[in-house]
Amino acid sequence: MKSCVTIALVPTIKTGPWIYWHDLPTSMAKAADLGFDAVELFTPSADAIHPDRLAALAAEFGLDIAAVGTGAGKVLHGLTLTDPDPAVRSKAVAFISDMMAFGARFNAPAIIGSMQGNAVPGVEKEQALAWLAEGLNVLGKRAEEQDVNLIYEPLNRYETNLINQLETGVTFLKSLETQRVVLLADLFHMNIEEVSLADSIRSAGSYIGHVHFADSNRRPIGGGHTSMREVAAALKEIDYQGYISAEAFPWPDPDEAAKQTMTAFKQYFT
Questions:
Q1: In 3D, which of 65, 64, 95, 63 has the Cα closest to residue 79?
Q2: Transmembrane helix as a keyword (predicted)?
C-alpha cells in the first residue's frame, strides 16, 4: 500500500477535508519531506494546472499523482450525473471526461463523489440511479480507452440518497456495462453507514480501488474512535495494493495533520 495526501486548489471549498491548500509547489515539497508516495489533487478544472508544470513538480519532488477529484464540477458549476435536465447531465459527463483526460496523463484515475448527485424531489431513486449508471457507462468506456480506472465513491446519507454503503456500491457496479469503475472506501463515510468497516472492506474485496484515510470525526487517523487496526487488517486480507489517501480536516493545522497521517500510515501499513 502507498501513502497519499490531499491538496485542494479550489478556494470555495476551503472548509473541506483536505490537508494542504493553495500553494501547490510548497504543498508537494512538504508531502515529499514527510515521505508520502503521492498526492491527490482537487482542482477547479482540468486546465487549472498545465500538465507539463505538474509533471515537472512531480519529478522534482519524487511524487506520483494518485487521483484527481471532480467535486468542483458540482461546487462551481452545479453539475451532477443525476440532474433531471439531460443538458446538465451531458455537461457533467463532459466535465468529468476532461478531468479524466487530465489525470490519465499521470496514470491517475478521477474520483466521482459529489458529482453523483441525488434523487431530487419529484424524481424516483430508481430513475436517478439509471441516470447515474448511464453516465458511468459512458465514462467507464472513456476510462478503458485511456487505460485508467474511474473511482466511484459511496457517500454518507447526509450527502447523497443514492448509494451509501460499499455492499450496495458493489451491486451497482456489477450492473454496469463497464469493468473500469471501482469503489472508493472512505473511512469517514463508512463510519456513519457501515455496521463494520472491516467486514465491509472484506466483502467489497477487489472492487475497492482507492481508500480515503480519515478518522470517525474526519480528523486525521488517531483523532477519533475508528478501530484502525481492524481496518488495516481487512485491507491486508483483501491484498489491497492501492493508495491510502488522507482526505481529512487539516486539524489542528495542515502540517500537524500531515505528520499525524504519516505516523498513522507507518503504524498500520509498514
A1: 95
A2: no
Single out the catalytic residue among 167, 193, 194, 247: 247
Q: Residues for the chain: how many in total?
A: 270
C-alpha cell at 125: 431513486
Q: Which CATH code for domain 2-269? A: 3.20.20.150
d(CA 243, CA 72) in angstroms, rounded, equals: 22
Q: Which of 40, 153, 167, 194 is catalytic?
A: 153
153 catalytic residue (yes or no): yes
d(CA 181, CA 133) in angstroms, rounded, equals 11
Q: Is-cis flag, bond preceding 17, omega within 30?
A: no
In sequence order, what are the residues at sequence separation of 6 or more whose Cβ sits closer than 8 angstroms to the Cβ of residue 129? 82, 119, 162, 163, 172
Instruction: Give dist(CA 105, CA 39) in Å, integer.
Output: 15
The per-residue pLDDT for range 29-82, each reduced to its tens digit, is 999 999 999 999 999 999 999 999 999 999 999 999 999 999 999 999 999 999
Known catalytic residue at 247: yes
pLDDT for residue 191 = 98
Tens digit of each residue's pLDDT (9 = 90 or more) over 125-134: 999 999 999 9
Closest CA relative to residue 31, chosen from 210, 213, 257: 257
